[in-house]
Amino acid sequence: MSQPLFRPGTSRRTVLRGALGLGALAAAGPLLAACGGEAGEALDPTGRPDLDGVTLKVLVNQPNAGAFEILRKSFKAETGADLQITPVAYDKLLAKSVLDVQSGAGQFDVIMYWYVGLGTLAAGGVLEDLTAYIKANPDIDTGDLLPSIYDPYTLYEGKRWGLPFDGDTHILYYNTELFERYTLEAPRTWEDSNAAAEKITKDSRGEHYGVIIEGQQVPIILGCTFANRLVGFGGRFLDEAGKPVLASDEAVAALQSVLDAAPHALPTPLQTGFDQALPAFLSGKAAQLEFWTDHSVKAQDPEHSQVVDKWDVVTLPVGGSNTKPATSLDAGFALGVSTLSKRKEAAAAFVKFAASKKQNEAQIADPTSGSDPIRTSTLSAPVFKKSFGRAADVVAEGLSGSPLVWPNGPKAPELLQVLVDELALAFQGKQQARQTLEKVHSAWEKELG
Amino acid sequence: MSRRLLTALLAPVAVLMAVPLVYIVSLSLRSRDDVLNGGLLPSEVFWRNWPDTFGAIDLPRHLANSWVVAAGAVALTLAIAVPAAHYTARARRSGERLLSLVLASYCAPPVVAVLPLFYLLRTTGLNNTLAGLVLVTGLANVPVAVWLLDGFVRRVPQEIEEAAWLDGLGGWGVLRHVIAPLIAPGIVASGLICFFLGYNELLFALSFAQETSVQTLPVALSLFQGDRNIQFGRQAVASIVGVAPVYVLALLAQRRLVAGLSAGAVK
Amino acid sequence: MAEGAITRPAGLTRRRAVRRARLPRVSRWQAAPVTAALLVFSGYPLVYLVGLALTESTLARPLQSWVGSDNFRNALDNEIFTGSLWRSTLFAVLAAAGQLVIGTGLALALAARARRLGLLGGLLLLPLVTPPVMVGVAWKLLLAPVGGAVNGTLALVGLPAVNPLGDERGAFWTLVVIDTWQWTPFVVLLVYAALLGVPEELREAAVLDGAGHWRLLVSVVLPYLRPALLAVFLLRLVGGFKVFDIVYVVTAGGPGAATNTSTYEIQRTALESFQVGTAAAETLVFSVMVGAVATIVALVRRRAVRAER
Question: Where are the membrane-spanning stretches (chain C) (predicted)?
């Protein structure tokens, strides 16, 4: 499917083309080339590609590059096909894949995507529809894929656009030494967490900080911080029908809870990104950190951590009237096939391979991969317990429940931008929690129509 | 003022300027939990970052790509800008109009231009090639070079050009035999500055070089930045390895630059 | 050899030829390469940009349908963007002015010290060569409120900790300082070069008139440098308007929108929330503003250049 220059049926297309065409001789060639379309042939769902000697080009999220080196070896051993891996910074991944297909460059066969970009990629014609392929390949065993992530990661407008690869969630890390020193219990509720934060920061007189609030206003950082409390207080971003429910009492209480913690956090939340948060926790300077599960590997690495065996994890706390813990799908990646790939069957075969039970377990077995379970069977595999250690139960609990799903429609990137901008204003004390979320709510309503 | 006094005045400034650079060197020798240790120096020297960086990324390749792109871009920039600056400096109104146009083209931030340029490169088969990066980077720096060179050309006394003209030389002839030799230091200075700009260019390199084999050093540096668990030590190593040869180039060029600059300064 | 506007007609007398020779001697074709470059690199993207600005456009689906001025309205209704225009202007003016003043001072001192930059001068150039991403990282870590080298050093000498990146004004000024740190060498290099061009006769004449160091500087050197200073200022002004890397690395536009400059906001709109149509409209609005500010400086420079003739 090629990208039309204009959506068919646009009444003013002639006017527009005329306006653009005039005095735009230089533009004409490339513009037309853009809609000339060199999309590969449609994917044959039952095709059995000969993989031997094929090289697939894969666009990969930088933090997962290590995981793909592991995959590459086993894929090659099993099929004879090689991978050419292109890592991209997490915040450039979506733009890069869209640009690649939009411009017609078609440099990649397989695209790794953050599920928040699913709608953008599917509606934008970047991802190949895999519905028929998945149906024709029962060995994918979709029933084993974790229901909590399978749909959010891959289902858009009733079709499947990929298969899950990395089921990311946050858990709460805390420094056991500091908690013991101040006779604190592992936090079960956000109220506990905030109280611990206040006590440690106050009593240590600036030597330690009770909590790290990651508030740098980019969706993957501040968005996670808010989402973790939102789910704890029993709130949601969108309801079943896809309508925003951000002005709810739960959401307001959740935001208020983060704002209450801010004064006791590593200074200052708005300027805290991963680059300050991780060293602060690893050096033992700060006592609590919400982060991805793979952090546990680094926390146990004596070369880079001063808190080896001095930390533990709990599932994200609950708050307010909510007593049922749940986690939030913070980040989380799936693999899809590029519409411009010239080896779609091979690409799909790799996506299937990467999502297989065997490979997911192999990923889990290697602590350097940073990958998380995507299958129910993986959660009960011995290798999972072994690799994730003290985090295993917490992760399993989160993924088998009903975690908070972020927006993933075509407007999602825009929605999250609005959200973090408004949250930042609240952190600055320029608006109250309720006012903030009401503004976000109405902006979202407007966007989602 | 005496030379010693001036040195005494300048030295602290140089030291102050150097603090962040010393810090980068110090970062390259720190383990991850030592990054925020509250001091300028590592609490314990951690050499492992150096071999690890070369193991983690293909540093020589990125370095070579950066040099090819920066040098190629400078050549392209100067090939366009030198004749253009002669024109803007000497063609009166038409020249001034062109100079304004060049300036205007420099005012727009290039983010959105990435899209049309992407089409252009793809259509010409230059996407994902070093040649494509040379082309866009070279063109992007033309305004800077024209603006700098224009001043150098204006410094050349018109009488010299008149004499050359009477000898029967045309515009190109005057440029080649009279102007170019006289503004050589200016060309070196502008070239050097364009080299720095091209060497550190990120947006185009990030957009038009998809494969690792054509990525420049700034792209590799930004990839460190794109990790959740940033390897500051390795990022610092890669930066130092990237900066060192350029610094040597700058020191070498400086002699030639300054020696002849008295002939025609920027104006 | 191709000749342009002013060719020498055959059979001119020598006197007339000399008079004609006072006219500019340059071939029109010398402007051809730059014209082609402008067409390809600016003209064509501009047409495309206008197209995007007038249509509903996302990154994945540009040029969907005509929307007239909607994108411009979106851009101008967005407080972050309109605020960014002011922030960018303030940033560009402050940073460029700071760089010009400090850079000129350093260049004067260097030139008075020796006719070679030397090792000291070379050291001063280093920030210019350092990749902007690394510059941002180094400064951010230096200034980290907890565990940063600046606060560590302050604590050693018993001074209270600072956190300039934690509040709006501090973050903005910090970026101005970082930009100044990185680009002052650019000014040093070019002004130093210009200084070496000050004709010895001028100096000597002034000294014969009994001018001291200060008078020499104010009434001879600086006026001589004026066109060069304005050209350098102009380049840094536009460069300041286009600041991106350090914003991205050091503050990500925060806290709040305190350091969200226009280029950062445009990048966010285009490549993070994918509203390419709005981003195109923002680019056009912003470019016009930069153009206006730059034109003022360019006109001042033109007058300075003419006055010298």
Answer: 29-54, 90-110, 117-139, 171-195, 216-238, 279-300
Q: Phi first, then psi: what are they for A156, rounded to 5°? A: -140, 130
A423 lies in some domain = yes
Query: What CATH code is carried by the domain that includes residue C136?
Result: 1.10.3720.10
B57-261, what's its fold? MetI-like fold (1.10.3720)
Within a domain: residue C169?
A: yes
The ipTM is 0.90
- Domain check: are C128 and C169 in the same one? yes
* Tally of domains within chain A: 2
CA separation for the pair A292, A169 (Å, rounded): 6
Q: CA C70 to CA C55: how far, in whole Å?
A: 8
What is the pLDDT at residue A70?
92
Both A379 and A348 in one domain: the answer is: yes
Residue C216 lies in a domain: yes
User: H or E segment at A321?
Assistant: none
One DSSP character per residue, C118-181 reads HHHHHHHHHHHHS-HHHHHHHHHHHT-TTT-HHHHHHHHTTPPP--GGGSHHHHHHHHHHHHHH
A418 lies within 8 A of chain B by CB? no
Taking the CA of residue A321 and the nearest CA in chain C, the distance in Å comes to 31
Residue A73, SS3 per DSSP: helix
From A206, which residue of chain C is nearest by alpha-carbon distance?
C146
Q: What percent of chain A has pLDDT over 70?
A: 91
Give the CATH number, domain containing residue A147: 3.40.190.10
Highest mean pLDDT among A10-14, A150-154, C1-5: A150-154
CA-angle at A29, arms to A24 and A34, nearest 5°: 110
How does residue B257 score in pLDDT terms, banded at 50, 70 and 90?
A: low
Gap from B9 CA to chain C (nearest CA, Å): 8
Tell me the β-bridge partners of A55.
A82
* H, E, C per residue of B29-93: CCCHHHCCCCCCCCCCCCCCHHHHHHHHCCHHHHHHHHHHHHHHHHHHHHHHHHHHHHHHHHCHH
pLDDT confidence tier of residue A40, bands split at 50, 70 and 90: low
Q: Which two tokens stand for residue B132?
A: 């494509």
Range in A20-24, A162-166, A180-184 the model is least confident about? A20-24
Confidence category of residue A170, pLDDT binned at 50, 70, 90 = very high
Domains held by chain C: number? 2
Let me know if residue A341 belongs to a domain.
yes
C86 with C231, same domain: the answer is yes
- Of B152 and B194, the one with more pLDDT: B194
Q: Residue A209 has what DSSP assignment? A: B
0.90 cut: is pTM over it?
Answer: no
Task: Give the pairing type, strands A159-160 and A155-156.
Answer: antiparallel
H or E stretch including A104? none
**What are the residues of chain C with a beta carbon less than 8 Å away from any beta carbon of chain A?**
39-40, 43-44, 47-48, 50-51, 54-55, 58-66, 80, 137, 140-141, 144-147, 163, 165-166, 168, 171, 251-257, 268, 271-275
- Domain of C158 in residue numbering reads as 74-308
Q: Hey, what are C36's tokens?
A: 């082609």
Give pLDDT, residue B262.
47
A218, A242 contact by CB (below 8 A): no
Residue with tokens 């008295």: B262
- Identity at A98, one-letter amino acid code: V
